[in-house]
């Protein structure tokens, strides 16, 4: 923890207003709040601004307003980044390019990793293997990942919270693949573009068992439609058991039921990427 480090951090929520309203109606945690919870614990003196970057009536930072931030975090989104006729998407891509040009270090998960790649010249498409949901299994560090500061403290193979339909299919120049699994080839990535550096993961280090259970409960209908469950009641039962594991992460029967270990239940392991980003990218960048 850095108790006296007064960082200025912008958290960019990529969900449009209509989706955020559905979050409220479905009792789902807002993704910016999950990042704020981490930041308030690890850098409690930080000043945090939340910007709803998908809202067309939301002003986006430019110029000195942009460079006044020490760091930028991108949340997930339910938009589709390759829909280039959607202004809610294109304004975010242009903002990411402006942040790269300004040299402000970035981190992002899910939508964030896709933004890191797409804004720098990579490509994203729908994943032919379908939705990856709940827990991404057997994420493996690449050789580069084992040496990269973002992944310090992670096991060579680990699980992570996840919920997505799209995947990166081509990397931009000056990027490094850090982690992969069978479902989604690019699970963690560094992108260097213009003057900036973006560290990102497809999975969600900011999530907890409790928050993933809330999200799964709210996604009951698509999870049934896509064939993962026979009924919505079965989804709700799965979520109830995940809530129970959240309340008692040492419960061995529930750990076996979900096939998880400390990489999921321990914040020390699960959130290593977030701490590493602060320690090894944000703080050194601020000193330059």
Summarize the structure.
The protein is α/β, with parallel strands linked by helices and 288 residues long. Helices cover 42% and strands 23% of the residues.
Descriptive account of the structure:
This protein is an alpha/beta fold and 288 residues long. It is built from 13 helices and 11 strands. The strands form 2 sheets. A 9-stranded mixed β-sheet has the order 2-1-3-4-11-10-9-6-7, sandwiched between helices. The chain has a two-stranded antiparallel ribbon with strand order 5-8. α4 (87-102) links the parallel β3 and β4 (106-109). α4 packs across α5 and α7 runs antiparallel to α9 (232-247). The longest helix has 16 residues, at 87-102. The two termini are 21 Å apart.
Helix content: 40-55%
Annotation field: number of helices: 13
The N- and C-terminal alpha carbons lie at a distance of 21 Å
**CATH topology assignment of the largest domain:** Rossmann fold
Percent strand: 15-25%
The count of domains is 2
- CATH class categorisation of the largest domain: Alpha Beta
Residue windows where pLDDT falls under 50 for at least 5 positions: none
The gyration radius over C-alpha positions equals: 18 Å
Provide the spatial order of strands within the biggest beta sheet. Answer: 2-1-3-4-11-10-9-6-7
């Amino acid at each position: 923890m850095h108790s006296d480090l007064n960082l200025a951090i912008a958290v960019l929520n990529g969900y449009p207003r209509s989706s955020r309203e559905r979050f409220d109606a479905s009792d789902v945690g807002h993704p910016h709040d999950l990042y704020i919870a981490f930041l308030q614990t690890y850098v409690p003196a930080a000043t945090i601004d939340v910007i709803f970057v998908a809202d067309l009536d939301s002003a986006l930072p430019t110029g000195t307003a942009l460079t006044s931030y020490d760091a930028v975090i991108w949340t997930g989104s339910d938009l589709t980044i390759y829909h280039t006729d959607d202004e809610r998407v294109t304004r975010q891509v242009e903002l990411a390019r402006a942040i790269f040009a300004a040299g402000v270090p970035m981190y992002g998960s899910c939508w964030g990793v896709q933004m890191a790649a797409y804004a720098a010249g990579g490509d994203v498409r729908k994943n032919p293997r379908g939705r990856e949901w709940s827990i991404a299994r057997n994420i493996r560090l690449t050789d580069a990942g084992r040496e990269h500061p973002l992944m310090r403290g992670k096991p060579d193979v680990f699980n992570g919270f996840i919920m997505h339909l799209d995947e990166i299919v081509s990397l931009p120049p000056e990027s490094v693949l850090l982690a992969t699994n069978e479902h989604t080839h690019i699970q963690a990535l560094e992108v260097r573009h213009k003057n900036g550096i973006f560290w990102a993961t497809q999975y969600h280090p900011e999530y907890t068992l409790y928050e993933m259970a809330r999200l799964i409960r709210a996604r009951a209908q698509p999870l049934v439609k896509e064939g993962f469950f026979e009924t919505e009641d079965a989804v709700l039962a799965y979520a109830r058991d995940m809530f129970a594991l959240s309340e008692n992460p040492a419960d061995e029967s529930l750990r076996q039921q979900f096939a998880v270990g400390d990489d999921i239940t321990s914040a020390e392991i699960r959130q290593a990427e977030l701490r590493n980003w602060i320690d090894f990218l944000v703080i050194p960048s601020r000193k330059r």
